[in-house]
What we know:
InterPro entries: AioA/IdrA_3Fe-4S. The structure is a single chain. The chain has 166 residues and is mainly beta. It contains two helices and four strands; from the N terminus they run ββββαα.
Amino acid sequence: xxxxxxxxxxxxxxxxxxxxxxxxxxxxxxxxxxxxxxxxxxxxxxxxxxxxxxxxxxxxxxxxxxxxxxxxxxxxxxxxxxxxxxxxxxxxxxxxxxxxxxxxxxxxxxxxxxxxxxxxxxxxxxxxxxxxxxxxxxxxxxxxxxxxxxxxxxxxxxxxxxxxxx
Length: 166
């Protein structure tokens, strides 16, 4: 159940050697820094702290400025009808952008954007909200949305009558 306050996770699982590995990019800006996604079924054994037991090939706990997984880099998603863990971390193999696995704080939280019915993302499809008011949007198609840009209709109509692109 989603809460209106932050409940920090006290455990972040490490991906096992058998985890699926995919690549993606950050969509927060036009740079498109690279990230790796590790996915494995919930209930399957997680990776262990030894390098031989996890997909990162790193001993944990790791030293300063070495690989680690923050709670914001983990989420649970549905894949083929079953819950799966996902860990999304900066791609250390990237040779062009975010070389060596650097990331912004926003990019480092991409996993939190993945749909999870038990987290605030559950509102994205079932109960979308207006970003300015945090109130549910009206899903009736015959009702006009709130006027967030007064006069926009008149400018749009005038531009259309003149054959201009609004």
